[in-house]
Amino acid sequence: MSDHGTAVIVGVGPGLGMSMARRFGREGFRVALISRSDARHAGYLADLAARGIDATAHVADVTDRSRLAAVLGDIRREGPIGSVYYGPGPTQQPVPITDIDSATARTAFEWVWPAVDVVAEVLPGMLDRGNGALFFAGGLSSVRPMPMLGHLALATAALRNYALTLNAALTGRNVYAGTLTIGGLVERGDIHTMVTADPARFGSPEGHTLDPDELAETAWRMYRTRDRAEEVFDALGG
Fold first, then answer.
1. In angstroms, rounded to a whole number, what is the distance separating the alpha carbons of residues 109 and 190?
2. pTM value surpassing 0.85
3. How does residue 1 score in pLDDT terms, banded at 50, 70 and 90?
4. I want to staple 100 with a disulfide (CB 3.0 to 4.6 A). Which of 104, 145, 155, 176 is the partner?
């Protein structure tokens, strides 16, 4: 069993999620993948196995709190959780910020509450062990006004603030929290695939993409140095 424990990838996809799995697995972490469907799990596990990384895959919709807690419990029984990457994003379409009421605004937070639930499940064990790390994938709208994202920008800002505040609260306790604030199309990710398949609709992505391996490498440096709570990746300019 790895001294690092298990790196849990919540909301794994072919872009940054798998890059995080490969990068932390390369350092000796056991890897546990979580996504709402098992449709791509076999391919993910084969990829990791070919790299000598011990990995398992699990099905849970992050909005199903009891199922998510059960899966994290199953993972924990195989060994301590040493790192968590929370990467799912909103699935709903933006509602213009000028058109929303409070009920609409609340719907944007459906992908933020599970992040809090994940932390509630894993943080006590990390504090008991005196080691661990929590990573969150956020969006550039949390630091720059981006009206095209509408009400979703509210939730993005909340997730960023949660990560930064966790980082401050955990100072001196040997558990790290940090956020990757992402502005751009993550290569190999599902959104990147959708955009590049229809340039007539979405325009050319040239100059606006980010290499997920580079993002994961930065996350690993953040894990090792623990000297900053945030890294901003901006391929959008402005």
1. 21
2. yes
3. very low
4. 104
